[in-house]
Amino acid sequence: MNFLHAIMYSHVNILLLIGLALFGGTFGGRIFQKLRIPQVVGYIVIGIVLGESCFNIIDAKTLATLSPINSFALGLIGFTMGNELRFDVFKKYGKQFMNILFYEAMGAFVCVFVLVFIGASFMFSLKMALIFALLFGPISSATAAAGTTDVLNEYKTKGLLTTTLLGIVALDDVFALFLYAITSSIAGNLIGHGNVSLAENILQPLYEIGGSIAVGIVSGFLLSKLLQRYTEEDRILDFTLGAVLFILGLAVVLKIDMIMTSMIMGTIFANKVPKKSRLVFGAVESFAPPIYILFFVFVGAKFNISQMSLPIAVFVVIFLIGRTAGKMLGANFGARISKAPLKVQKYLPMCLFSQSGVAIGLSIISSQRFPGVIGNTILIVVTTTTFIVQVIGPPFIRSAVKKADEVNKNITEQDVIKSLTAKDVMRSHPAIQENQTVENIVHIFSENDGLDFAVVDPDNRPIGCITVDSIKDALATENLLSLLVAADIMEPITYTVTPDMPVDSIYHELSSKSTNYVPVVDSQKKYIGFIETRFIDQLVSKKMLEVSMAI
Question: In 3D, which of 229, 270, 214, 274 has the Cα closest to residue 79?
């Protein structure tokens, strides 16, 4: 009995903690957004308050229990990033991306390597200083996909800077893995771990990368085939989330990279069925925000200021300075020699501060392979710097994309629909009186471009609707034509809207009622206009064209 009670109590606690993290993160994000600070910073700050550095409500054991949420968030981030990796874009800018990628990653590696070696040589032996430099260097080259994409999504950015940035953060983790494979082998031999060869260290990341690409490609093709058959948004979302979760679990079993696998799947899907992918990625993006909030709250909760010591504080400062300087200088140099547009040269270096989950992963591997002072120091330093750059990185990205004039350029059809109300899409069609003859009704249809018209009573209140099909049926009964009036051929209405009602609510209601029209009424329920779904579609298409022309 006590055992069951303990299980139930633990279960309730987990639910309480998730609810608290989600509610607190949302509230904190909203406050920071009002202060013109990216909301991701608010999520992390709330995590600090709930974590070991403050109230310790979310401790390390709880974070380990909730780690599947982090994996799910990273999988969703990888999948949605795949939508940005269009083959036509890489065909046009691929060489430019690879140049920038090489120099920004190597810039961070070289700067951190040199500064860590110099700094560590004052605290440890030269051999230990070299080992620290070999391990910190490749870890510094990785960039966070999560924090970057969250800011870009929040500010709806679109343009060459955004495309370049997403291409870089999608690929530099691969570069970091290769660098780490080589340098960790050298470090292992220096410290006496000579049982693992350089070849084995290189083959392992090759397996991870190759396996991720293979599984991602196959799953992307299968998902595109599956979703081509369905149009219902709810079912599409169910299949997509199921596919992402399945691929993440398979990646764990095969010991390949989860983010890369889901990203490749998203890339193949987006390029295989570009039209369908808009609906799919839109559905995923509408579902994902609560998962992202939890992810960043947990990032903040991991930060533990009590673990700081003087040597670790020195490493933190050195690592931050070297990584920041190296990435900024390298990105700028790479952009210049590849002749990237001026705004990419100027603003891309401001967008690469955030540190990725791959960096945390490599630090954990280091702590396991090099137990003791080396492993513990690397784990604490990388965890601390990840927190710091996750806080300072998003404001710099926001500033860069604003200066590059790419904010609010990634407008979707759903964004346009959410911005409209009934008065924006209604037409002031003349209403048909309930006693009007079919002959008069045909005249009204011929004089106006509507396919459906409201029928009103003597008090000008909608009581029905006459469609083109209704007219066709009436004209087929020639012997009764002179006897029919509007009330005889109309379809009764059960639904009206007011001018201030949101269009997305109207769309949902019309879909649930399987109809294409609705009358608009004032506060006295009197007819003032008419909405057809084709009017909405026309207006949305027009606004989307205006947005694309403005970019």
Answer: 270
Angstrom distance (rounded) from CA 74 to CA 64:
16
| CB-CB contact of 351 with 148 (8 Å) | yes
Residue 176 · residue 127 · CB < 8 Å: no
Q: At what angle do helices 258-272 and 198-227 cross, to 10 degrees?
A: 40
387 or 17: which leads in pLDDT: 17
Share of the chain above pLDDT 90, in %: 19
**CB distance 183 to 190 below 8 Å:** no
Q: Both tokens of residue 125?
A: 């032996």
The DSSP code sequence of 24-50 is HHHHHHHHHHHTTS-HHHHHHHHHHHH
How do strand 517-521 and strand 527-532 relate by DSSP bridges? antiparallel
For 279-418, strand residue ranges (E) read none
Q: Render pLDDT for 388-412 as a digit per residue (tens, 0 to 9).
A: 887 888 889 999 999 998 887 777 7
Give the model confidence (pLDDT) of 473-527 as tens digits.
766 665 565 667 878 788 888 788 898 998 888 877 887 777 888 889 988 889 9
Q: Which helix (H) or strand (E) holds 453?
A: strand 452-456
pTM above 0.70? Answer: no
Give the tokens for residue 224: 């595109």
Return the closest-CA partner of residue 149 out of 199, 251, 75. Answer: 75
What element of type H or E holds 520? Answer: strand 517-521
H-run or E-run covering 364:
helix 357-369
Phi, psi for 247 (deg, rounded to 5): -65, -40
d(CA 258, CA 254): 10
Give 3-state DSSP helix, strand, coil % of the chain, rounded to 5.
75, 5, 20
Q: Please give the angle made by the CA atoms of 468, 471 and 477, to the nearest 5 degrees.
A: 150
SS3 letters across 173-220:
HHHHHHHHHHHHHHHHHHHCCCCCCHHHHHHHHHHHHHHHHHHHHHHH
Compute φ and ψ for 184, nearest 5 degrees. -70, -30
